[in-house]
Amino acid sequence: MQASTQALRPSACPGLMRIVPARDGGLCRIRLACGELSAAQARVVAQASDTFGSGLIDVTNRANLQIRGVREDSQEALVSRLVDAGLGPITPDSDDQRNVMSSPLAGLDPHALLDVAPLVSTLIDQLQRDARLHQLSPKFALMVDGGERLAMLDHPHDVWLSAISAERFVFGLAGGPPRFENDAPALAAVETGHVPALVDALLNTFLDLAQPWQTRMRDLLTTCSIEEILGLVQEKLGFALDRDVKNWRRPASDARLRFGVHRQGTGSDVCVGAQVPLGRLDAAMLSALADLAPRLRMTPWQSVMLLDVPSSSALVVVEQLAALGLATHPGEPFARLIACTGSQGCAKSFADTKADAQLLARSMPPAGDVHLSGCARSCAAAHRVETTLIAVAPGRYDLYGDAPDALARHLTIEQAARWLARSSLDA
Ligand code: SF4
């Protein structure tokens, strides 16, 4: 049964975890450091989603989980269950600030420059313990990049930090690591051990300068120059920022590494990745994933990696993932389709994007990524996708490529599939 948005209070559990109203009931976001949870925690989430919600669980494009359809009379019990399982914040009023993104292979990729997982934990701890930082917007987000071969580099972050060696990080504001010649360069470098102090100075400088309407770093940069911000940051630091980093470029990452079997660190275990169709799990699927590996990592592609899998079991695990309905190869339709919540869960949506994406999956051409969005806000994709279908009415979409103008309008899903097939033949 659908709960009405108006009937739900914004949160029944002030101070711990925020449950926001949605068309299909309360929405409880579970923030995961490095996207990781243990199999035991995954079972708790699966059971809690069944007991207190609709049984549906989203993997978000920030590598978190969301329990959907939470009933109003179950909110406190749900939060209590999650906090007991170690999935909540460590201090009141700090859950929203635990936004530190890293690679799904943080600490696991033998080609990375260093293991950033301890640094991610330190920064999340800092964000929770410093009460002043709780003034940051729930959307204010940091990224810590250890140079892993699999990293989501397309999401803009308020503050980003990239390792250039095991001893040094460069950083920037309101964007991501520069990869191409014309990208905005890194601003400065610091020693790895100085990163927590740097982040503290950056966030406090942001709070010192930001007007109430300036909730994101990009907003602040409309009224303050980078030089002004860096000058104030430098005054807070007991070490000098090294500004001689303008030529650094981040080596390319490979999103296809989220699929298949990969070496995990230097041990004999492997990790195995697969795509969750349309980022949507149910309780039974999540429980089944927890049975396949002792640790799970969610990724910003709304996919999952199973960790600590004995190499002798890897191929069986791939088969089991496929049997659960996950895409195990980058060419599969569900590896190339994303869709926002759509009208099942969002009042702003003009169409049932999840159902329409299921329909489109049956006739996807062999190449190309497609994003279905219920409205122009495009919540599901923080990065550029080759083709975007924006709903304008139930079952009807305008189709966009690179250009701001639509390439075709008011298409049914069948017409969109034909359009995609034609353009893949032309390519
Ligand atoms: S893109 Fe629009 S319709 Fe889809 S979830 Fe976001 S606000 Fe709702």
Could you explain the architecture of this structure?
- Strand 16, helix 9 and strand 17 form a beta-alpha-beta unit.
- Helix 1 runs antiparallel to helix 2, helix 3 packs parallel to helix 4 and helix 9 crosses helix 10.
- The strands form four sheets. The protein has a five-stranded antiparallel beta sheet.
- The protein folds into three domains: 138 residues, Sulfite Reductase Hemoprotein, domain 2 (Alpha-Beta Complex), CATH 3.90.480.10; 118 residues, Sulfite Reductase Hemoprotein, domain 1 (2-Layer Sandwich); 91 residues, 2-Layer Sandwich (Sulfite Reductase Hemoprotein, domain 1), CATH 3.30.413.10.
- Helix content is 25%, strand content 23%.
- By secondary structure, the protein is an alpha+beta fold.
- It is globular.
- The termini are far apart.
- The N terminus is likely disordered.
- It is built from ten helices and 20 strands.
- The longest helix is centred in the middle third of the chain and has 15 residues.
- Bound molecules: iron/sulfur cluster (SF4).
- Iron/sulfur cluster binds next to loops.
